[in-house]
């Protein structure tokens, strides 16, 4: 075994090491969320800006960029989930239950991490089928008409896909529920990341708590603003 | 005559390690409110002995909050809901006449029940034996100020050293994790110059022993910190995480 695999094994086989994997993959996913949200908000700038952005993503590094990102994200998600499921099972095995169960200060969000996480996983699968694979809908056939008229080139109309996608109330309802659980997951997860990476101290404690809650709220508001603007306020129609 | 309380106790009784336990109900009458929680149990036990029944078994020793022997999870919270005290320092004036009090052992897979409310906490001893010490030549004590130590480090080491090894952190943790205890021991020695030579070896050995004992994994909920009678801060856990990450990388790569 070479040194690197020995190092990785010693992390994976220890409680703290496995948590480091959760924290680092969590960090990558947290940063991805910020990028994803920023791109999504271009919906409000307009059809051209949003479709330009979609085109850019799909053509970065001659189309390889999007696949590198997908593989990276998929590995992070997989490691994050495999590690947390293993840790949760060990935790359940270590705890013998009390007849009188009490909680002193652990917030609800910290106690439902595995369930908020698994719901988010179900949501991500649905979300990919909805907008990436575009299964069971006709979004694939949407052509950006303005772009065709200006340049003579055909490209996918991602903007219209978003508007139509979020015109269905139960789709929007599912998105809002999933984003609310994501907010709950992040409010505990972001702060935990600092703790597990050993970056929390007496002085940074309050700041980290604020960053964690603030980030969770920002992500929640940002992501739900799009479906709600479309469904409730008729944006884009 | 001082105020007296009449209470109902719901107590975990278990005859041996192997037998199944059960909750039993006992009246605790005429308890003076200045009695400590353990003295209240003494009174109940005297009554049981007079009736020819088996008294309730529980751990205790110093009865002044320094030895870490007493345990008891009282209404779901180790050492009761008062912050910063052990069960032996908890007084009955904190309860109200007519209360029902649930008394259970410090529960965790890694703390097997010996009898009733007594649990076997020797997993902690094995963790200490794995690295919670420094190797020094003993002899006459060195001059107290010969090693300069920054005040902040000395304070933090002292805070961590206040851990009495009671196990309330494990008992309160949703995952029965021993991270607060282990981090207190790691931090105590890791802050001081005498602890430096074995700092990496220590954190690796103690964390591995902790894992081997079957404690759970920390999920950063800080129930431990709230239950700890010595109010040890979970900041020590962050420090241990950092030390462990560095030491494990160095062990494998350097
Ligand atoms: S850290 Fe606190 S609760 Fe845990 S063993 Fe030490 S004194 Fe007891
Ligand atoms: S009996 Fe010693 S700490 Fe309670």
Structure in words:
The complex is a heterodimer of chains A (237) and B (254). Chain A is mostly helical and 237 residues long. Chain A has a single domain, classed as Up-down Bundle (3 helical TM bundles of succinate and fumarate reductases), CATH 1.20.1300. Chain A contains 10 helices and no strands. Chain B is α+β, with helices and mostly antiparallel strands and 254 residues long. Chain B has 2 domains: 4-104, Roll (Ubiquitin-like (UB roll)); 121-253, Fumarate Reductase Iron-sulfur Protein, Chain B, domain 2, CATH 1.10.1060.10. Chain B has helices spanning 37-50, 122-131, 151-161, 168-172, 179-190, 199-212, 223-227, 235-253; strands at residues 4-13, 22-32, 73-74, 77-78, 100-104, 113-115, 118-119. In chain B, strands 2-1-5-3-4 form a 5-stranded mixed beta sheet. A two-stranded antiparallel sheet of chain B has the order 6-7. The chains are: A mainly alpha (237), B alpha+beta (254). The interface between A and B is large, with 47 and 53 residues. Bound molecules: iron/sulfur cluster and FE2/S2 (inorganic) cluster. FE2/S2 (inorganic) cluster is lined by residues 60-63, 65-70, 86-88 of chain B.
What would the average pLDDT of chain A be, to the nearest integer?
95
Q: Quickly count the helices of chain B.
A: 8
The low-confidence runs of chain A, each spanning 5 or more residues with pLDDT under 50, are none
- Alpha-carbon Rg of chain B, integer: 20 Å
Q: State the CATH topology of the largest domain in chain B.
A: Fumarate Reductase Iron-sulfur Protein, Chain B, domain 2
Distance, first to last CA of chain B: 71 Å
What are the bound molecules? iron/sulfur cluster, FE2/S2 (inorganic) cluster
Report the strand count of chain A.
Answer: 0
Radius of gyration of chain A: 21 Å
- Helix amount of chain B: 25-40%
Strand residue percentage of chain A: under 5%
| Estimated structural class of chain A | mainly alpha
Q: How many structural units, i.e. domains of chain A?
A: 1
* Oligomeric assembly: heterodimer
Q: Could you list the spans of chain B in which at least 5 consecutive residues all have pLDDT below 50?
A: none
Principal-axis shape of chain B equals elongated
Q: How many helical stretches of chain A? A: 10
* CATH top level assignment of chain A: Mainly Alpha
Largest interface: pair, residues per side = A-B, 47 and 53 residues
């Amino acid at each position: 075994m070479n040194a690197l695999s020995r190092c990785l094994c010693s992390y994976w086989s220890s409680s703290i090491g496995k948590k480091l994997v959760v924290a680092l993959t969590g960090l990558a996913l947290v940063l991805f969320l910020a990028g994803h949200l920023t791109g999504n908000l271009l919906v409000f700038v307009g059809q051209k800006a949003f479709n330009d952005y979609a085109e850019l993503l799909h053509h970065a590094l001659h189309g390889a960029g999007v696949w590198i990102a997908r593989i990276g994200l998929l590995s992070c998600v997989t490691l994050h989930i495999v590690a947390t499921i293993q840790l949760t099972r060990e935790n359940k095995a270590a705890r013998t239950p009390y007849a009188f169960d009490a909680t002193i200060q652990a917030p609800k969000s910290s106690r439902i991490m595995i369930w908020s996480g698994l719901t988010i996983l179900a949501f991500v699968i649905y979300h990919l089928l909805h907008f990436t694979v575009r299964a069971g809908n006709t979004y694939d056939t949407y052509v950006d008409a303005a772009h065709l008229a200006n340049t003579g080139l055909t490209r996918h109309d991602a903007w219209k896909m978003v508007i139509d996608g979020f015109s269905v109330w139960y789709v929007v309802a599912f998105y809002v529920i999933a984003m609310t659980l994501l907010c709950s997951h992040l409010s505990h997860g972001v702060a935990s990341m600092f703790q597990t990476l050993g970056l929390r101290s007496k002085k940074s404690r309050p700041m980290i708590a604020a960053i964690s809650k603030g980030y969770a709220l920002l992500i929640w508001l940002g992501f739900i603003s799009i479906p709600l603007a479309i469904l409730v306020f008729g944006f884009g129609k | 005559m001082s105020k007296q309380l009449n209470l109902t106790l719901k107590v975990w009784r278990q005859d041996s390690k192997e037998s199944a336990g059960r909750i039993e109900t006992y009246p605790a009458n005429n308890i003076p409110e200045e009695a400590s929680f353990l003295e209240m149990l003494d009174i109940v036990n005297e009554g049981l002995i007079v009736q020819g029944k088996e008294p309730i078994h529980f751990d205790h020793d110093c009865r002044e909050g320094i030895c870490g022997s007493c345990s008891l999870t009282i209404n779901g919270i180790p050492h009761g809901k008062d912050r910063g005290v052990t069960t032996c320092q908890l007084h009955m004036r904190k309860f109200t006449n007519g209360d029902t009090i649930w008394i259970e052992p410090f529960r965790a897979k890694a703390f097997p029940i010996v009898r009733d409310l007594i649990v076997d906490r020797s997993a902690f001893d094995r963790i200490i034996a794995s690295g919670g010490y420094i190797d020094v030549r003993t002899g006459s004590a060195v001059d107290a100020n010969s090693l300069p130590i920054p005040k902040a480090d000395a304070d933090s080491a002292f805070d961590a050293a206040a851990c009495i090894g009671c196990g309330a952190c494990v008992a309160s943790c949703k995952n029965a994790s021993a991270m607060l205890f282990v981090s207190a021991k790691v931090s105590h020695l890791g802050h001081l110059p005498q602890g430096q030579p074995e700092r990496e070896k220590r954190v690796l050995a103690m964390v591995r022993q902790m894992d081997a004992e079957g404690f759970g994994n920390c999920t950063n909920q800080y129930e431990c910190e709230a239950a700890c009678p010595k109010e040890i801060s979970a900041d020590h856990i962050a420090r241990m995480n950092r030390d462990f990450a560095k030491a494990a990388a160095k062990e494998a790569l350097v």
